[in-house]
Design brief:
Elements lengths: L8 H7 L8 E2 L3 E6 L2 E7 L9 E5 L2 E8 L16 E8 L10 E5 L2 E7 L23
Amino acid sequence: MLVRFDPFHELERLFEPLRDERITYAMPLDAYRKGEQLHLDLDLPGVRPESIEVTVERSVLTVKAERYWSDEGTETVVCERPQGIFTRQLLLGESLEADEVKASYVDGVLHLRVPVAEGAKPRRVEVASSSAAPLRDS
């Protein structure tokens, strides 16, 4: 049998009765650029889609979700999965179209797509070729 040693587990267990139900938790995130979009995938397992709130104010993207499953009259024996409010804020750079964010939620993962701004897209620069003198700074 595999035994995992976690020196902080006992400390967490001692402070569990003092834990505030309004604690906020961060959500794991993968971010990558694919084509002309920034993709953000956030893990939110067990969250009801209607509890997810995505907002953009200026260049700050905020994701907030809630997850609760405690039933009245149930005695909890082990509680290792966090419940409560999950939140994450991301600063979107000027190279992204913050007003064009699209969101979907599939299999416990919130998928956000943010288009890259037109001015930030790669562009081809034509190279002039002639017998004239090269361009130089004056």
